[in-house]
Specification:
about 80 residues; elongated; mainly alpha
Length: about 80
């Protein structure tokens, strides 16, 4: 399985160790989970953004007063 060496300053490593201990994890498991969580977060945000884009026109039609000011006719001055 691939692995990775990561360099930290003494202060950074102390903080990361404290964070791992606070979650009851080894340093190795904490850093692994941190990377995986970040990847999952980005995938979630991309999916949520696509979902919102698909429904934006329907929402804007149903709730015309909720259209962001910058997107209203006349721009932000219309607000």
């Amino acid at each position: 399985m691939p692995s990775l060496n990561v360099s930290f300053t003494d202060e950074e490593l102390e903080g990361v160790r404290a964070a791992a201990a606070a979650e009851g994890k080894s340093l190795k498991q904490y850093l692994h989970d941190l990377g995986v969580r970040e990847m999952q977060r980005k995938e979630f945000i991309a999916g949520a953004s696509q979902w919102a884009d698909r429904l934006r026109a329907e929402f804007d039609d149903a709730f015309p007063d909720e259209v962001p000011p910058a997107e209203r006719p006349g721009g932000a001055a219309a607000a």
